[in-house]
Design goal:
The complex is a heterodimer. Chain A is α/β, with parallel strands linked by helices. Helix content of chain A is about 35%, strand content about 15%. Chain A has 14 helices and 15 strands. Chain A has a 7-stranded mixed beta sheet, with helices on both faces. A 4-stranded antiparallel beta sheet of chain A has the order 11-12-15-14, covered by helices on one side. A two-stranded parallel ribbon of chain A has the order 1-13. In chain A, a hairpin with a 4-residue loop joins strand 9 and strand 10. Chain A is globular. Chain B is an alpha+beta fold. The longest helix of chain B has 17 residues. Chain B is globular, with a radius of gyration of 14 Å. The chains are: A alpha/beta, B alpha+beta. At the A-B interface, helix 12 of A face helix 1 of B.
Chain lengths: ~400, ~160
C-alpha cells in the first residue's frame, strides 16, 4: 500500500482540509472503512450480542467474536485469552483490582518512573492495603534503567507492571529483559502496550508476559474498546471485575456462579459496533504492514528531529536518538500551552501538558511539554509546516 | 483577532517578569489554585487591613504566559483597593473574559484599565480561558478563606 495516498482514506482530512494532526499518541484518526463499518453495523446488522437466539443477534455475536480472532492473530495471542474492556485504562484497572485481591500488607509492586497515570493510579489504590510501590528509575535521557530492576526485587515482590513505549519520550522499554528477569523470579508481569501496538511489532507468544493491555482508538479503531490479553491461569484465578449480565453461569437468591473464560470479565452490554469496526482497523494496519509503519514513522521522526533541533532554544524531553512515533520538546522561554495556541492558529494539532505522566515530567524537571506524535497519515510537509509555526511562535515571543 | 493581539507586549512583559511574585509579608488570607490538565499551580497571598483594604497582595506559582500575566496584572490592580472593589473587579473580569462584556472603568485609573482590558482577548480562545481565570478564582477563594484548593478545570 502506498502511504503517500493514505491520507485520502481518512475523512477527517477532507472536512478539515488544513488540519495537520500530530496527536496520534493521544488518539488516532479513523480510516473510512472503520467509520463505514460502524454505520453499516448499526444500519444493517445491529442487535445486542451474546443474548438472544434470533438470527440477527446470532450474526452480530459472531461478528463481535470474530474480532477476537483477528486481534489474536494480529498480536500472536492465544485462543481464549483476549478480553474486551472499555480502554487500556480499564484493562490496567482490571489487572490491578483483581490481582490486588491476592495482595496483603507489605507486598510490593514494581512499576517504572515512565508510566502513564493509567499504569500507576490503579496500583496506587492498593496502597490502602499497605502494599508498597517501587519504581524502576529513568535516567536523564528518559530511558528505563532495566539494570536496576534486580536490586528492587525482594521476596515480597508480587507483580511487575511496565510501559512498553513511553507516550512522552517515545523510548522503548527493554521489556524482553524485564520479562526474563520477572520469569526467572516467578513474578507475574504486566505490560502497558498502549503506545506500542501498530507502531512496533508485538508478538505475545514471543513476549510471553502475563498481561498485555492496549486500546482500539490508538490503532485507528473506534473509541470505547480496550483489549486485555491475560493468561488463562489468571482468567481462571481472578474474581470478576464488574458484575452484571453476561458474566454469570447461574444465579439464585443465595448463590451466583460466574461464566468461565473471558466472558467472566465482559459484564453488561458491550461496545459491539465498535468491536466489530475494530476488525477493520486491524485489517487496515495489517494491509499497510507494521514494518512499513515503523519505517514511515521513523523516517518522519528523524526528519522532524533534524529540522526542529536546528532551532535555537529547543529542549527535548529525553534523548531523541531512539525515538519513533512520538517525542516531546519545549521551546525555551515559551510555555507549551502558549506554543500550542500558536500552532493551533495554523491548524496544527499538538498536545501540550504533562501527557498524564507527571512522575516523568517531575523527574526531568519539566512542568509541561509539547508532544508530537505520528500516524500513517503524516508526511514531511506536515513537519515543514510545524517548523514554520515554531518560527512564528519565536517571533511572537520575541526569541532570536 | 490576531495572535499578536493575544500575546501583546504588555502580556508578554508580565508573563516574563511577573510583578508581586513571591510570598508577601504578613499576609492574613491565602488560597491555592490548580489547573490539573495544564499543570498550572498558583498560590495567592493577601494582606487585608482593619479597614478591609488590600494592603498587600502577591502570588507564587508556574504556568503559561497568559496565566502568569493574568496573575501579575491582577495583583497590581487589586493592591490598595477595598475588599468590595476587589470583588467587583472579580466579577467584571469574569464578565469580560467569559461574556465578552466591555468593561467600564469601575474605579480604575487609565493605566489599570489598560492592563485589565489587555486580557479581554483571551475570551476568543476558549481553551485558554481557564489559564486567565485561575488567579482570579484563587483571589476569590483567598478573600473567602476557602481552604480547599481551587480547580479551574471544574469551575470554567
Amino acid at each position: 500500500m502506498n502511504l503517500k495516498d493514505i491520507k485520502s482514506q481518512f475523512p477527517i482530512f477532507k472536512s478539515n482540509k488544513n488540519l495537520i494532526y500530530f496527536d496520534t499518541a493521544n488518539s488516532a484518526q479513523k480510516p473510512k472503512q472503520v467509520i463505514d463499518t460502524l454505520e453499516d453495523f448499526y444500519k444493517n446488522h445491529y442487535a445486542n450480542i451474546g443474548r438472544a437466539v434470533y438470527g440477527l443477534a446470532a450474526r452480530a455475536t459472531a461478528n463481535y467474536e470474530s474480532t477476537r480472532e483477528v486481534i489474536k492473530e494480529f498480536v500472536n495471542g492465544t485462543e481464549g485469552e483476549i478480553v474486551f474492556t472499555k480502554n487500556s485504562t480499564e484493562s490496567l484497572n482490571l489487572v490491578a483490582h483483581c490481582f490486588g485481591k491476592f495482595l496483603k500488607e507489605g507486598d510490593e509492586i514494581i512499576l517504572t518512573e515512565a508510566e502513564h497515570h493509567s499504569n500507576y493510579v490503579p496500583w496506587h489504590f492498593l496502597r490502602k492495603k499497605k502494599v508498597n510501590i517501587k519504581f524502576i528509575p529513568i535516567n536523564e535521557d528518559g530511558e528505563v534503567e532495566v539494570n536496576k530492576l534486580t536490586s528492587l526485587i525482594t521476596t515480597k515482590t508480587k507483580i511487575i507492571s511496565v510501559i512498553h513505549i513511553s507516550n512522552v519520550t517515545g523510548l522503548t522499554t527493554d521489556i524482553k529483559k524485564i520479562i526474563s528477569i520477572a520469569k526467572a523470579k516467578k513474578i507475574p508481569i504486566c505490560i502497558d502496550g498502549t503506545q506500542a501496538v501498530a507502531h512496533t511489532h508485538v508478538d505475545l507468544k514471543d513476549l510471553d508476559c502475563d498481561f498485555y493491555a492496549f486500546s482500539s482508538h490508538k490503532i485507528y479503531g473506534p473509541t470505547g474498546v480496550g483489549i486485555l490479553y491475560m493468561k488463562n491461569k489468571w482468567i481462571e484465578q481472578f474474581e470478576p471485575f464488574i458484575g452484571g449480565g453476561g458474566m454469570i453461569q447461574n444465579v439464585d437468591t443465595k448463590n451466583i456462579t460466574y461464566a468461565s473464560g473471558v466472558s467472566k470479565f465482559e459484564a453488561g452490554s458491550l461496545a459491539s459496533a465498535e468491536v466489530v469496526a475494530l476488525k477493520q482497523a486491524v485489517k487496515f494496519v495489517k494491509d499497510i504492514k507494521v514494518k512499513n509503519i515503523i519505517s514511515h514513522e521513523q523516517s518522519l521522526a528523524s526528519y522532524a528531529l533534524d529540522k526542529i533541533s536546528k532551532f535555537n532554544d529547543i529542549e527535548f524531553v529525553g534523548s531523541p536518538s531512539t525515538k519513533a512515533s512520538v517525542f516531546s520538546f519545549n521551546i525555551k522561554g515559551v510555555h507549551a500551552h502558549d506554543a500550542s495556541t500558536v500552532f493551533d492558529e495554523d491548524d496544527i494539532a499538538v498536545r501540550a501538558g504533562h501527557h498524564c505522566c507527571q512522575i516523568l515530567h517531575k523527574k526531568m524537571k519539566i512542568g509541561s511539554s509539547l508532544r508530537m506524535s505520528f500516524g500513517v497519515y503524516n508526511n514531511k510537509q506536515d513537519i515543514d509546516a510545524i517548523c514554520e509555526s515554531i518560527k512564528k511562535c519565536k517571533k511572537i515571543f520575541k526569541l532570536k | 483577532m490576531d495572535l499578536t493581539e493575544l500575546y501583546q507586549d504588555l502580556i508578554l512583559d508580565h508573563g516574563k517578569k511577573p510583578r508581586n511574585f513571591g510570598k508577601c509579608h504578613e499576609f492574613n488570607h491565602d488560597a491555592e489554585g490548580h489547573n490539573p490538565l495544564c499543570g498550572d499551580n498558583i498560590h495567592v497571598y493577601l494582606s487585608l487591613n482593619n479597614d478591609k483594604k488590600v494592603k498587600d497582595i502577591s502570588f507564587e506559582g508556574s504556568g503559561c504566559a497568559i496565566s502568569v500575566a493574568s496573575s501579575s496584572i491582577m495583583t497590581e490592580i487589586v493592591k490598595g483597593k477595598s475588599e468590595k472593589q476587589a470583588r467587583e473587579l472579580l466579577s467584571a473580569f469574569f464578565k469580560m473574559i467569559k461574556e465578552g462584556q466591555e468593561i467600564k472603568k469601575i474605579g480604575l485609573s487609565e493605566d489599570e484599565h489598560i492592563k485589565f482590558s489587555s486580557l479581554a482577548g483571551v475570551g476568543r480562545f476558549p481553551m485558554r480561558v481557564k489559564c486567565a481565570t485561575l488567579s482570579w478564582h484563587t483571589l476569590r477563594a483567598a478573600l473567602d478563606d476557602e481552604k480547599k484548593p481551587i480547580n479551574s478545570e471544574v469551575i470554567d
